[in-house]
Structure formats: structure tokens, C-alpha cells
Amino acid sequence: MSIADIKKTAEAKMAKSIESFKNELQKIRTGRAHPGILDQVQVDYYGSMLPISQVANVSLIDARTISVQPWEKGMAQKIERAIRDSDLGLNPAAMGDLIRVPMPALTEERRKELSKVVRHAGEDAKVAVRNLRRDANEHAKKLLKDKLITEDDERRSVDEVQKLTDRTVVEIDKLVQGKEAEIMAV
User: Fold this and answer.
1) Is the pLDDT of residue 27 over 80?
2) For residue 106, which of 82, 89, 94 has the smallest C-alpha distance?
3) In the chain, where the domains are located
4) Which residues form the Ribosome recycling factor domain (predicted)?
5) Fold annotation for 3-27+107-184
6) What is the pLDDT of residue 84?
């Protein structure tokens, strides 16, 4: 493995960390309805736990209401119970085979709690990026120890990985600020 490989691998993994963080942010609900909010809710489907999107059609009725249309008639009660029991604070209402999930308006207190959740998720993403930096630097040190690169090469590699880490952390901070602004907007 060369220094270029180390840098390329670290860059790819950091990009994946950012994508994962973006997906995590999509799950945190704001005042608006978003079908992806229900992705983390698991439903008991004949003994196995599946996400709602695999047992029903999830779509938007309007800006504040999600509709869930089960593919099987018997699943409506199970889906409704799973949504109600989730930690999302949603109260679904069944109307025949269709389940309507209205999104309650967020209180100021709930907005502040969600803001803390976003900041915590951002810190977790930063920790993951720093761990990737550490791994890349350890690879470079190992190459130096095995005398495959010079000390200057190792130092240059460490500097490049640090710059990459700094750029990634700045991007995570921007995502956190954007999501906080979205949550706090009334």
C-alpha cells in the first residue's frame, strides 16, 4: 500500500461517513413531513422485523401528513402499533386500509431537544472521521517502520490526511448548522 492508496482510502471512507451522517440527519424530523422519517420504524412481518417501506407504500398526502398504505390487509394494525410505539412521538390514525400519520407542530422545547440530538450526531460523525485519520496515520507509520517510505513521506502523508480531516469536519459542521436552522425555523 502506498501513501496515495492510504489517502484515497481515507478520503473514500470519510465521504462514506458524511453520507451516513446525511442519512442520519434525514431521520430527524422537523415540522414538515418526510417519508424517510418512518424508515427506522420496524414492523413484525410474520416473525421477522422489517422496515415499514418493505411492507407498505409510504407517501406524502400534504406537507404535514404521511400516508402509509399496507400491501396486505392484516398489516395495518401492526404498522399503526409500530409507528405509535416508536420514539418519534407520532400518533397514526387508521382509515380503513390507509394509515394517516399527521406530523405535530414542534414546540420550542422539542426543537431545542432535536437541536441537541443533531449536535450529538455531528460529534459522533466527527469521532468517526478522526478514527479514520488515526487509522490512515497508523498505516503510514507502519510503512515507515517497514522502511517502505521515508520519514518525509510519512510526515507529508500525515499532513495531507490532517487537511482532509479538517475539510471533512468543516463539512460536518455546515451540515449540523443547516439542520439546526431547519429545526429552529417556525
Assistant:
1) no
2) 89
3) 3-27+107-184, 35-102
4) 21-184
5) Topoisomerase I; Chain A, domain 4 (1.10.132)
6) 86
**Long-range CB contacts (within 8 A, 24+) of 122-129:** 122/21, 122/172, 122/173, 122/175, 122/176, 125/17, 125/18, 125/20, 125/21, 125/24, 125/172, 126/169, 126/172, 128/17, 128/20, 129/14, 129/17, 129/165, 129/168, 129/169, 129/172
Sign of CA dihedral 160, 132, 130, 113: positive
Q: What percent of the chain has pLDDT over 90?
A: 30
pLDDT, position 186:
63
Domain with residues 35-102, CATH architecture? 2-Layer Sandwich (3.30)
Residue in the block written with cell 427506522 = 40
Q: Point out which residues pair with 123 in neighbouring strands.
A: none
User: Angle at the Cα of 156 (from 150 to 161), degrees rounded to 5?
Assistant: 130
Report residue 163's pLDDT band, with 50, 70 and 90 as the boundaries.
very high
Crossing angle of the two packed helices 151-184 and 3-27, in degrees rounded to 10:
10
List the grid coordinates of 92.
397514526
Pairing of strands 42-45, 48-51: antiparallel
Q: Give me the pLDDT at residue 29, please.
A: 65
